[in-house]
Amino acid sequence: MKKKDDIELEMQEIVVEEPAGQEEVSLKEEAAEMKEQAKKTIQLIKEKAKEEDPKPNSSMSLRTILGGDFLTADMVRRQIWLFVLMVVFCIVYVAVRYQCQQDMLTIDRLEKELLDAKYKALSSSSTLTEKSRESHVLDALKQNKDSLLHIADQPPYIINVAE
Prior knowledge:
Elements: H1 4-16, H2 22-48, H3 62-67, H4 73-78, H5 80-131, H6 134-144
């Protein structure tokens, strides 16, 4: 494609090289017509060579949606912040879900530890209860033989105090 200036220079050269007379007039007219055609052609090329997308029709059909025709550059430019917001929400959603899974694993591990601690406490409590029974205490005292403690032969006395 030639630039507008190049086309005009060629037209001027054509006009300069024409012979004189009646042929000269007809050649000038042809040159003027060619110049008009060149201007119209340049104008058409400028109109078609725009970077903007054509305005979409107001009718939205299944074909335009499935074909992706409604996703024009103009629409994308107008909605860019919406797309950015959607991407940020997706990233936050994935991060929160991952953190939730990590927290659930930690909760499961801590519940197992708690259950183990409860069983250990129950076992210790039952061992202490068993060792503190009267029969076991008496057996332990008999085995030591250096203790002066023994089982009472008489029942306890009730002492009444007058006030």
